[in-house]
Amino acid sequence: MKRLSLLIKTAFLPVFMLILGWGELKAQSANVALNHGDGWYRLILGGHPRAGGEISIYGGLGNNKLTLIKLHATFMGYSQYGSIEIVENLFYNGNHVAAIRSGTTGGGLSALDFHFVGITGTPTVVVEVDGINMTIADPPEYEPVAPTGVTNISGRVLGISSVQWPVYFGNKVGIGTSIPSEELEVNGTIRSKEVKVEAAPWPDYVFSADYSLKSLEETEVFIRENNRLPDMPSAKEVAENGIALGEMNAKLLEKIEELTLHLIEKDHEIKELKSQMSEVLKELKVK
């Protein structure tokens, strides 16, 4: 299997890329000096509107600082964006690649920039590329004009950034767990500005004329016998299975709407009682 994979990479893939017009697979390596301290360095130039492959950067950054970052990137000219996937990220005495960006530099060409921090002196890093239409910039351009059609990612993560295309996972995803039982399972806290849940049916049916509204007496009996509201899960069920947010929100709204109907009914009864009391008081005054 390894021989077959190597054969595909070394023989068939280059021919396939040439047919598509991407260019030739090319491996390069260079010792690149970072002579200007912290900041953005344009390390990779895309010599064609389409470029991509594997990039590795490693070495010492002075003051006993080491870094090794490996990524897969595709970047395109004409502001067509691309993707950056960091697959390995090791460092010592601090993370030294704070951010990475790719994009269009003009004339339909593209580039890959790295933002280094924590540099001491004028260190040298090893830059290795293995891919299509990529050239190591040696010396690199320091603080270049930011590209357009930018795809960016923090240098302090493992993961993927994609602007042009959605990121797809074909199986269950677990965060903090290696055996997810749902499409996404998180063993911890989720923090979000907004959560959108699709829930159906929504309980507008409570206000239908044919809805069977339990009386308060029936509800009281059910609560005494079951220690919970009708049509709601028990504490044991929730402890074992959790709750589905969409379904639970619908159930809670159903109970609120039922309470509203009971309140309207009681309001009518109170008004009727007030009217009857007013008539009684009038009769008493006459007598």
Automatic annotation (TrEMBL):
Record key words, sorted: Coiled coil
Source domain of life: Bacteria
Coiled-coil region: 256-283
Name this polypeptide is given: Uncharacterized protein
Source organism per UniProt: Marinoscillum luteum
